[in-house]
Design brief:
- The complex is a heterodimer of chains A (147) and B (147).
- Chain A is an all-alpha fold and 147 residues long.
- Chain A has four helices and no strands.
- By secondary structure, chain B is mostly helical.
- Chain B has a domain of 59 residues.
- The chains are: A mainly alpha (147), B mainly alpha (147).
- At the A-B interface, helix 1, helix 2, helix 3 and helix 4 of A face helix 1, helix 2, helix 3, helix 4 and helix 5 of B.
Chain lengths: 147, 147
């Protein structure tokens, strides 16, 4: 069991390294091809990779059947994410882009839960969590003003 | 400053698309869900690129940098797949923390190699964010085990 934990911990770290490399690569593509063309190419290559995987796994067919329109918007919102990442990474670097994005993500998740938007069950943010949020916001502030 | 705000904002779009894509994956399964995600991304980014850039393909010279820059879309797909493999095996608490440490550590190294200087603010800010994240996730796990 313990060796499984070490293996999966290592894989988690590697996945994190991959995300940082991905953000770097996408940012470079954005400077080579331009903001909008790079977004097309990034999604095309992602689609090709995912499609190849589906073909290998023989899991094609009924791709869009029964999917409510609202759920499709995840991919559209994803375009905005990559666009913002590409703009940021070429100006403030990889570490700050990813660090601030994480803080933004945690705060956004808290807001979504607290107010019950996007069909989430309303769940008030407990006061106990406030120090954790403050710590993360402090980290973001240090990144912004001490870099 | 503007890019710091955009990076924080990208965290909000990440949280939104994670929510929507999780629902999509619940209906279609993860692999098809990721495929649909990229398909939608292409459906949104292609018309915008055509509208702004027209049909002119940017002239680029092939080199190793371009080849690396093109891998972003494929790396993104692999990272999502690894994420779904690891999460049930190690738990959301550890993967979230380790993933972020991997991202930030790599980000600091890439920025350092690019700029020729390691910025201490990014490292200290990152440690504060990790501390807040660990605290927050621990509170959530403790609450779950008490229920």
């Amino acid at each position: 069991m313990k060796s499984d934990f070490i293996k999966n911990s290592g894989l988690s770290l590697i996945a994190g390294v991959m995300i940082a490399v991905m953000v770097t690569a996408n940012g470079m593509l954005s400077s080579i091809l331009g903001t909008w063309v790079s977004l097309v190419v990034i999604h095309f290559i992602g689609l090709l990779t995912a499609g190849l995987f589906l073909i290998i796994k023989k899991s094609t067919g009924n791709i869009l059947k029964g999917v409510p329109f609202g759920y499709l918007l995840g991919g559209a919102v994803g375009v905005i994410t990559i666009l913002l990442n590409n703009l940021c990474v070429n100006n403030i670097g990889v570490a700050m882009t990813l660090g601030l994005a994480l803080v933004g993500q945690i705060i956004a998740s808290a807001i979504v839960e607290h107010f019950g938007v996007l069909g989430m069950k309303k769940k008030k943010v407990s006061l106990k969590k406030v120090p954790a949020y403050l710590l993360m916001i402090a980290g973001a502030a240090v990144m912004i003003w001490w870099s | 400053m503007i890019y710091s705000l955009l990076a924080l904002l990208s965290g909000g779009t990440v949280a939104t698309s994670i929510l929507l894509n999780a629902r999509l994956a619940a209906i279609k399964g993860l692999k098809k869900g990721v495929f649909v995600n990229y398909l939608m991304g292409l459906a949104v980014s292609l018309p915008i690129a055509l509208l702004i850039n027209g049909t002119a393909v940017p002239a680029v010279e092939f080199n190793w940098m371009l080849l690396f820059a093109l891998t972003g879309g494929a790396i993104g797909f692999l990272a999502v797949m690894m994420n779904s493999y690891i999460t049930p095996r190690i738990g959301i608490l550890y993967i979230t923390i380790l993933l972020f440490i991997g991202q930030l550590g790599t980000g600091v190294v890439i920025d350092g190699l690019r700029d020729g200087v390691f910025q201490i603010g990014k490292i200290i800010g990152g440690i504060l964010i990790v501390a807040g994240l660990v605290y927050l996730l621990k509170l959530e796990r403790d609450k779950k085990t008490n229920q």
